[in-house]
Amino acid sequence: MLTDTVEDYLKSIFALSSRNEPTATSALAEWLRVAPPTVSAMLKRLDAHGLINRLEGHRVELTAHGLRHALDVVRRHRLIEEFLVRVLQVPWDEVHAEAEALEHAVSDRLTERIDSYLGHPTHDPHGDPIPTGRGQHVERWALPLAQARPGDRFRVARVSDRDSAALRYLGDLGIRPGVVLEIVEQVPFGGPLRIRIGDAQHGLGAPLTALVHGEVA
């Protein structure tokens, strides 16, 4: 049985690699908010247990064994988030932290009961795909909102939950998975992106547009 810390590392490596971001020691340290030497020590442990492969440039990748465990944790985490939002009506900007704590305590049996109770959801409240119980999973990050152009109608697919304050703000504006918004204007020289949702217009700076992914509708 894997420890909570090992599960956190496997999930973090999965998260970074699925975003095509570096999985080097420094990147993992920043993602996990721990010191690089701590990461280095844990990576040695994961390597010894056949959970990761070492790559050039101090990068790592999950082995098939490591990926299977990572998907198990991701599945529990995202099902818990969906349960908390849909059943307990916990605000969507609070469920990530709660799921981080609960994901290590929920058994496989309870995970499957939650999945069945919710009707086998395919995505969590933030639009992240939920792996199946058989480990089937497609992790696709669509077009960033920042790359949409004036006049485009943009359907939101995913909103990153890494920053709870930003997530709360975006939710208050009505920016959630499934919502279609219109790109009004991209202010030049690094200015905000102006969008329209219904009759309301809002300006979003680069840190916020980087959190929203979707497709031109």
Per CATH, the architecture of the domain at 143-216 is: Roll
Strand content is: 15-25%
Rg from C-alpha positions? Answer: 18 Å
Structural class: alpha+beta
Low-confidence residue ranges: none
The major sheet is characterized as: 6 strands, antiparallel
Q: Could you give me the name of the CATH homologous superfamily of the domain at 143-216?
A: Ferrous iron transport protein A (FeoA)
Please state the average pLDDT score: 95
Write the CATH fold name of the domain at 143-216: SH3 type barrels
- Give the SSE order as H and E letters: HHHEEHHHEEHEEEHE
CATH class of the domain at 143-216: Mainly Beta
Strand order of the largest sheet: 3-8-4-5-6-7
Count of runs of 4 or more consecutive helical residues: 8
Characterise this structure:
By secondary structure, this protein is α+β, with helices and mostly antiparallel strands. Among the domains are: 59 residues, Arc Repressor Mutant, subunit A (Orthogonal Bundle), CATH 1.10.10; 74 residues, SH3 type barrels, CATH 2.30.30.90. Helix content is 42%, strand content 17%. The chain is built from eight helices and eight strands. It has a six-stranded antiparallel sheet. A two-stranded antiparallel sheet has the order 1-2. A hairpin with a 6-residue loop joins β5 and β6.
Question: TL;DR?
Answer:
The protein is built from eight helices and eight strands. It is an alpha+beta fold and 217 residues long.
Tell me the layout of helices and strands:
Layout: H1 4-18, H2 25-32, H3 36-48, E1 52-54, E2 60-62, H4 64-86, H5 95-102, H6 108-117, E3 143-144, E4 153-159, H7 164-173, E5 180-186, E6 193-197, E7 200-204, H8 206-209, E8 212-216
Antiparallel strand pairs: 1-2, 3-8, 4-5, 4-8, 5-6, 6-7
Helix pairs in contact: 1-2, 1-4, 2-3, 4-5, 4-6
